Amino acid sequence: MLLKEIMTPVVDTIDSEASVAEAARVMESRDVGFLPITLEGVCAGAITDRDIVTRVIAKGLDPATTLVREIMSHRLRAEEPNGRETNAGLISLPDHADVDEAIQVMDEQNVRRIAVHDRDYRIIGVVSRADLPTNRTAIAVD
User: What pLDDT does residue 36 have?
Assistant: First the structure.
């Protein structure tokens, strides 16, 4: 099974110049806990509801004046030989990657979400742990 078959299409992103409060409002209105962050139309990272709590609220920062770019995860390394695009907090796999690879990557990187990109590296979806089958072995029913 391919990631594009199980991903949740991404419709919402937030610009890197938006405030954390704006990001929280988008998350609340869309009932999501993850937003890709764009810089000049390109995915530059991500912000999660947990990031807001641990990087803003817990540190006493003002969500209205703190920009998402100030707390987002930054790119750690360029594209890896296997085609993965890796950021701290944001791992992206191509839409034609297999579900088994996503499970392996999530386990290796200890993440709960993976962004899905097209051939032009535009983020087109998200796969979360909840989207993935927990047991890939088929069980025969008599």
Answer: 86
